[in-house]
Amino acid sequence: MIPALGYGVSIACLIWVYRGFDWHRELPKLRATHWGWVTAAVVADVFVYICQGWRWSVLLSPLGPKVSKWKSVQAIYIGLFANEILPLRSGEIIRCYLQRRWTRLPLSVVFSSAIIERLLDGAWLVAGFWVLGKFIDLPGWIDNVARILMVVMLIAGGLAAASVIYRRHAHEMVAATPWGRTLQSVIDGVHGMGRSRSFLWAALLSLLYLILQIFPIFFLMRGYHLDLSFGAAVVVFIILRTGTILPNAPGNVGTFQALVIAGLSLFGLDKADATGFATFLFLVVTVPLLLGGFIALIATRMRLTEIHRDAHEHFASH
After folding, report:
1. Do 52 and 76 form a contact (C-beta atoms < 8 A)?
2. Which of 71, 224, 273, 309 is deepest in the core (most CB within 10 A)?
3. pLDDT at 291
4. CA 164 – CA 162 distance, rounded (Å)
5. Exposed/middle/buried for 301, CB within 10 Å: 0-12, 13-18, 19+?
6. Can you tell me the distance from the alpha carbon of 118 to that of 66, in angstroms, rounded to the nearest whole number?
7. pLDDT of residue 183
8. Does any domain span residue 21?
9. Does a structural domain hold residue 14?
């Protein structure tokens, strides 16, 4: 049911995005693109995932042996590669499984670190919405999404904080549940990460991770000859990142383009130009990611189907 809904949304977005789109008119703009800016965007995108791997290693560092930053980056790229071709963000499960396999940390602990990553990202996104609201009159639907995200973050952040401060009571509360031992491991992991000095460093790296994601958008705006400011790239990024929180079709195809167009429309860009740029942006950030993920996968000497099967079996057994 959920995969069908995701594919339905994706198809509806693709129809809306490309209905009436004049490819013959827009293709010359692609040929006129400044490829130096494209190269800068690709390099910036690589640094995004290096920063994410660094943050993941920092988060896990209090819980066991030193976690390799490059192994974390490798797991992230393989997970992103899986997200591009498999539904429902299966790459999140795959990257956690690979990290567990390489570090021997409990799977529940590794998975809780991925949840903390999302909490940190969400907290900075909420802050970003608050700042944007001071300078830009955001559409009502975006404002509503921001409010929902804030409520979710407050609830999830409160539960995480309770695990850090009241670990013993949290253990007692989940002990009688069917997943008592697993939840207790999650609580222990959150407690260990939340009380560590490295947590603040991970929070700062989360901010850097999000800021770095703005640069590929801005660089491609320059390369595509759009006369828009860095602030416009910030707005497009926040709308894009928030709108793709929920899992949908592989690679967020359709929703990605629709959200970029929605962001650019706030700055008066007509739909044809916005669609051309959204298509270009999707290709530039997706193709290198697929290539990097494929190389990272080859380095494991395993097949994606094999990793996918083992990861789901491992999660099911826990």
Report:
1. yes
2. 224
3. 95
4. 5
5. exposed
6. 22
7. 60
8. no
9. no
Q: Cα separations (Å) of 53 from 75, 166, 202, 249?
A: 8, 29, 11, 24
In a domain, 38, yes or no: yes
CB burial of 13-34 (b: ≥16 within 10 Å; e: otherwise) equals: bbeebeeeeeeeebeebeeebe
Using a 10 angstrom Cβ sphere, with 0-12 exposed, 13-18 middle and 19 or more buried, the burial of residue 144 is exposed
Cα–Cα dist 48/213, whole Å:
6
Read off the amino acid at residue 94: I
Spatial separation of the C-alpha atoms in residues 145 and 134, rounded to whole Å? 17
Stretches where the chain sits below pLDDT 50 are: none
Dihedral pair phi/psi, residue 183, rounded to 5°: -65, -35
Q: What are phi and psi of 278, to 5 degrees?
A: -60, -40
* Helical segments of the chain, H only: 2-18, 23-31, 35-60, 69-85, 90-103, 107-135, 140-165, 167-174, 180-194, 198-212, 214-223, 230-243, 255-265, 271-300, 304-317
Q: How far apart are CA 184 and CA 169, in angstroms?
A: 11
Neighbouring residues of 154: CB distance < 8 A, sequence distance ≥ 6: none
Structure tokens of 84? 């591009």
Q: For residue 277, what pLDDT is reported? A: 94
Separation CA 317–CA 125 (nearest Å): 34
221 lies in a domain?
yes
pLDDT at position 224: 92
- CA–CA gap between residue 239 and residue 254 (Å, rounded): 14
What is the length of the chain?
A: 318
**Total count of domains within the chain:** 1
pTM of the model: 0.88
* 166-195 burial: b if 16+ Cβ within 10 Å, else e: ebeebbeebeeeeeeebbbbbbbbbbbbbe
pLDDT at 45: 96
In whole angstroms, give the CA distance from residue 265 to residue 57: 38
Rounded Cα distance between 261 and 13, Å, is: 11
3-state DSSP helix/strand/coil % of the chain, to nearest 5: 80, 0, 20
Which residues constitute the domain of residue 54? 33-317
